[in-house]
Amino acid sequence: MLIKVSRSCDCNASQVTPESVYLSRRALLGASLAGMAVSVLPRMGVGADDSRYADVEPGTAPGWLDQKLREARWQAMTVEGEAITPFKDATHYNNFYEFGTDKGDPAANAGTLKTEPWTVVIDGEVSKPGRYALEDFVKPYQLQERIYRLRCVEAWSMVIPWLGFPIADLLKRVEPTSKARYLRFETLHDPQNMPGQRSRFALIDWPYIEGLRLDEAMNPLAILAVGMYGRELPNQNGAPLRLVVPWKYGFKSIKSIVRISLVADQPRTTWQAIAPEEYGFYANVNPGVDHPRWTQARERRLPSGLFSPNVRDTLMFNGYADEVASLYTGLDLRTHY
Amino acid sequence: MRYPWFRLAIFVLGCLFPTWWLYEAATNLLGPDPGKILVDRLGLGALIFLLITLSMTPLQRLTGWPAWVVVRRQLGVWSFAYIVLHMTAYMFFVLGMDWGQLGVELRKRPYIIVGALGFLGLLALTVTSNRYSQRRLGARWKKLHKLIYVILGLGLLHFLWIVRADLKEWSIYAGIGVFLLLLRIPGVQRRVPRLALKGSGKGR
Q: What ipTM did this prediction achieve?
């Protein structure tokens, strides 16, 4: 079923800046002029071929996923006036501590991740628990392209075109019981192929755990993604199945999911367990509540050049306040950070 | 000037790294967030120079080669130079030249306060690193320059408070630092063997 979301950030396909324009614009103008430049430069249509974005390494998706990707609803949601982060940057600069703590480690080490076969378990407070091969898990849904801002808790940000489906659609299928109040997500635990899980100095108690309140998960913005930039997810970005919740800090968007449990009590998430005074359960993007060690009022939108640092103000709920603010009425976001 | 080539080599090395990193950043080899990477590398570079500085005295004792101690001062000044670049890069790339925000950070963030104290310590040592100060301060000069041990502690604490989830890298540097400090305990110091080099054994 199609969920129509009303939102202020909606815009039509022609308004998305194609990569070629984006790059040439960057060469011509400082990144700070980006907003202005978009409106002046000629608009180019997005091709219908596989290479929707420039310089995308072609994927090697299995047949069923390739088919799914082809049938996706392109640009179901976009962001206005913001350039999409180059593929290389989104795939070679990110956190995935299972593969190391440097930003380049995931791209360097995630080749060992085995995404086929992949099994996803749905359990807990649901009428229809199950254990699915990924293909069967994704089969019922049409993929949608969602172009979202991504704001890392470390104060850098990107704009990424994801391919996935709303978690709400999944929840309707598995039928949460009346006791279900939260979702608990779990990443693969495979120390043999995930070097970060072997580190004896890691403060993380593997596997990585994340969670959402049921009504948060039901919000149409929250998706489970299987692809990005028109192809399947690269391993380092959380293949083959990850969460994307764009109004929360990036660490909430758990990668390489093997289990989704509906639970009655708020799950204890990984970052909360390490440093509860720094990372809360909600982790909503909020410029008014600092991380104890750094400010969250501003962010570096990447790529941020050496001679034109692209520092901008962080928006409440990462710019998705119209869609999600109502989830938190009556909740003190200073204590529930 | 004794050992001019050795000194020159260290000088060139000190210049080389930041120049190379700047070149990498300018040619997009550092990825989408080169400013942050420069900040991190310069900070780590300063710590490494500090540790090298602290290993000169033990090396001199071990080998008897006097050149180690001759370059010690220059190495210490390099550590200071990297910290100055580290802070400049932080101001420019992370804070976006927002001085008001710097004031906030200096009041609110323990790791920034500790780092700033470390910088002040290094500044004091650098300013008094010339012969004139040595003569003027006399015996007090040596006492003042023991501050380097405190600075090492501040630097390691600053580094520890930046770590998010894996202490491996920090543990390596902290381990080296602790080892170098242990070597200075008189009881330990006496047990360090002396592998005096031929011809320079009676250097001191």
A: 0.78
Peptide bond into B58 cis (omega under 30): no
Q: Give the pLDDT of residue A272.
A: 95
State whether residue B62 is helix, strand or coil: helix
Q: Is residue A336 part of a domain?
A: no
Residues B106-138 have pLDDT tens digits of 999 999 999 999 999 999 999 999 999 999 999
Q: DSSP readout, B69-113?
A: HHTHHHHHHHHHHHHHHHHHHIIIIISTT-HHHHHHHHHH-HHHH
Q: In this complex, do A202 and B165 lie within 8 Å of one another by their Cβ atoms? A: yes
Q: What is the pTM for the complete model shown?
A: 0.83
pLDDT of A183-193, one tens digit each? 999 999 999 99
Q: Which of B33, B111, B169 sits opposite A304 (nearest CB)?
A: B33
Q: Using CB atoms, which residue from A156, A274, A290 is nearest to B165? A: A274
Taking the Cβ of residue A274 and every Cβ of chain B, the question of whether any pair is shorter than 8 Å is answered with yes
CATH number of the domain enclosing A108: 3.90.420.10
Domain chopping of chain B, boundaries: 4-191
**Cβ of residue B172 closer than 8 Å to a chain A Cβ:** no
Contacts of B31 in chain A (CB under 8 A): 89, 92-93, 103-104, 303
